[in-house]
């Protein structure tokens, strides 16, 4: 593999994403990233300026995900449909970028100094979800108690769908592919029931 070339930045980002997801940001060194990418160690400084900027570039390239962009643009006239599109967009992102999800979950759990970067990219989606939840109650199609409690419950339901390996002993999933195929439909129905959706 060439040490440099037009795709060296992509190779570095792919390697960093893999290693950050597997070992965490702090435990991953620049040397490890370059070895994984088959790139000269000086190229991270040349192309990115350091490991911190490699981390930031991962989010710039992975987000916003097309389906998530479409979900955020969904008209708020139909809050239930807005919720459906947000759930579908997030699930699509989880399935297409499992390593990014792992990185985001790790960084959130340790309350890292990179938290603000993650919020910058993730919060527009969650703010839109919150708007849909609030608008649905205003229109009388959602019925729930605490806005904060219901938002955190919905986020928990959405964000832990990629943990079937961890929770495997508790589950009865014979075919993960079939599980993920039905995930969006069943998760959306679960979330809407949790919001007290009164529509069809």
From TrEMBL:
An annotated Gene Ontology molecular function: transcription cis-regulatory region binding
Residue ranges: DNA binding: 29-48
Domain HTH tetR-type: residue ranges: 6-66
Gene3D superfamilies in the record: Homeodomain-like (1.10.10.60), Tetracycline Repressor, domain 2 (1.10.357.10)
Pfam families attached to this UniProt entry: TetR_C_29, TetR_N
InterPro entries, A to Z: DNA-bd_HTH_TetR-type_CS, Homeodomain-like_sf, HTH-type_TetR-like_transc_reg, HTH_TetR, NicS_C, Tet_transcr_reg_TetR-rel_C_sf
Highest taxon in the source lineage: Bacteria
UniProt keyword ATP-binding present: no
Keyword line: DNA-binding, Transcription, Transcription regulation
Protein name: Transcriptional regulator
Species of the source: Thermobacillus composti (strain DSM 18247 / JCM 13945 / KWC4)
Species classification: Bacteria, Bacillati, Bacillota, Bacilli, Bacillales
